[in-house]
Amino acid sequence: xxxxxxxxxxxxxxxxxxxxxxxxxxxxxxxxxxxxxxxxxxxxxxxxxxxxxxxxxxxxxxxxxxxxxxxxxxxxxxxxxxxxxxxxxxxxxxxxxxxxxxxxxxxxxxxxxxxxxxxxxxxxxxxxxxxxxxxxxxxxxxxxxxxxxxxxxxxxxxxxxxxxxxxxxxxxxxxxxxxxxxxxxxxxxxxxxxxxxxxxxxxxxxxxxxxxxxxxxxxxxxxxxxxxxxxxxxxxxxxxxxxxxxxxxxxxxxxxxxxxxxxxxxxxxxx
Length: 271
Hints:
By secondary structure, the protein is of the alpha/beta class. The protein has helices at about 1-15, 25-55, 85-95, 105-115, 130, 175-180, 195-200, 215-220, 250-265, 265-270; strands at about 60-65, 75, 80, 100-105, 120-125, 135, 140-150, 165-170, 185-190, 210, 230-245. The strands form 2 sheets. Strands 1, 4, 5, 6, 7, 8, 9, 10 and 11 form a 9-stranded mixed β-sheet that branches. The longest helix has about 30 residues, at about 25-55. The model is unreliable at about 10-15, about 30-35, about 35-45 and about 45-50 (pLDDT under 50).
């Protein structure tokens, strides 16, 4: 307000010194200057308020997270742990926000982020052009391809052998999209969780499952008695990032923090 008063005062001084100016014009100009000064003050306050609203410091976020080991899963005590959980924690420390994790299946989670029911989503979410039409993404922090898993006695030896076969996938995942697009002659069986897809192949009800390489490797390591093994080459290596509502004001800050965490070696240590 002091700045506004100084602006008006300066113009009044000039106008009072002009003896030839008519009173009506003087009143008009005084009013115009007053309105301009007040408008500038309001805009300034609005910009400051906008900057404060966009800051993550002190905010408490609701973060949806998928169940997808080794990126997000529960330990023996039921605590959510994993790569993405550690990375979210590092982001919260750097940016000054707190958070509440909400464990969700991937399809409902992406709908929730689109509807702004949650502030952020995680769990090695693949960044695709189709998804970017509806939701926003951070810069990629990980790149993962897809691998097929079949029974050890299966005649399937390569990705080409999947044509015409029964393939189990998790709904809404990059693997689901890839199989639907590239194996139009296959019988695609969709499950809400990848664990059910593995079981479908284990019991012989499906010929193969396709999923992100890190998870397939993790499954085989943690299930030494599994009858499955990996076949073929890794395909469609895709970027993964954190998901946000399309117009989220937090994306830029998270991107800057991810860059800093990469530069200082934090992301490499977590990985």
